[in-house]
Amino acid sequence: MFRLLYIAFVIIVLVLPGAVQAKQDTVRSADGLAKLLPLLRPGDTVVIADGVYENWSVNLDGRGTIDQAITIRSQSPNGVTFTGRTSFRITGQYLHLTGFLFDGCKMEGISPIEFDRSEHCRLSNSTFQHCAGDRSAVYILAGARNNLITQCRFIDIAGRSVQVKINEDIYEHGIPTDNVIRANLFQDIPPLNENGRETVKIGQSQPTFGHINSFTLVEDNTFLRCNGEGEIISNKCSGNTYRRNTFLDCEGELVMRGGSYCVIEANRFMGCSGGIRLSGTHHTVKDNIILNSKGTGIRLLYGMTKEQGGHYQAVSECLISGNTIINAARAGILIGDGRNKDWKEKGVQKFAPEGNQFINNIITGFTGDLLVSNHAPDNRIKDTIFNQRGNATITTRGENPVVRDFTHE
User: Fold this and answer.
1) The domain spanning residue 306 has which CATH number?
2) Would 158 be classed as within a structural domain?
3) Burial bucket for residue 28 (CB in 10 Å: 0-12, 13-18, 19+)
4) Are residue 227 and residue 138 in the same domain, yes or no?
5) Count of beta carbons in the 10 Å neighbourhood of residue 15
6) Residue 249: which residues within 8 A CB-CB, separation 6 or more?
7) Based on the domain organization, do 149 and 278 belong to the same domain?
8) Distance between CA 346 and CA 305 in Å, rounded?
9) Is 87 helix (H, G, I), strand (E, B) or coil?
10) Distance between CA 137 and CA 105 in Å, rounded?
11) Which of 47, 133, 189, 374 would be a feasible disulfide site paired with 108, CB 3.0-4.6 Å?
12) CA distance 92 to 116
């Protein structure tokens, strides 16, 4: 009797939906992968056999679960190389792509990876190198939510590496929100010598879409010799967080091109052409360290308008607190850069930063002006610690400054 009950129990368990065992399949072609996708269940794994593959175009629309993602991986780490006009369009849920090499991909009109209305999908441990074109290596489109890009490498990308796109498509498919760019390496991005090669771009057309909250999180990444253009990271929307990123020997800055209520926290800049540049409102800039900037540490721009809508929006109601700036060649903190600059059809930068607070910052240097306010009096500067050395000057000291003057030693 016990034996019969045990057999019946095993049969019942095996036919339950949750008891179906995950399976693993191996494919060697785009067609093979496309045919297999509709058959995949939560927990299944697809292995792409090691090799070099060209011009794959596959729509990944599987449906995993929070506990059992569907995994698509290389047979061995970076053992699968994709080249040419390869593009994976991710439209599913709880999919995990990992272990691929995208080498020399042509990013003209397509991206190697596109998150398109995907939710809770992940791209990890993959390398993008020597790719070029007008698109980005990874594109996050309207409606994509809670996706993660982590532990990937972007090397020698003659284009954008990662972009979150916010345009008219959000009215049909929804805003791309709560996506995460974490613990990646961006390295040796070649110069374009004009606009259009931001390493990471979050949003675009900030006069129109700058108020949109995308809640993108960019954290724990390393940017090494990212020289694509003046904006290493370009923020053009609201509600985003940039924290604990490291910038080494880059020709560019972390730029709040516009938007509101972004957090720039605990980043490290060493030997870059600049540090942090602000436009927009209600940003929080705290606990950053900027060392040996060739230009400024933190600078706030004049705007064409006070409200959203200008090419640059004047900086207002921002908190700049607890930052340490060491040896910035031009200025440690510059309040009011670009005053009266005429951009012709885009307007004149005539509105000064106002209503901003600069609290408990530490500025030290041998050259330049440690803190200067360029005809921008309506800001509060308090409790700044200055270590004045060499030929450094201090134009603006604010309330309760602590000045340690070593210029005569």
Assistant:
1) 2.160.20.10
2) yes
3) middle
4) no
5) 9
6) 224, 225, 270, 271, 272
7) no
8) 11
9) strand
10) 9
11) 133
12) 9
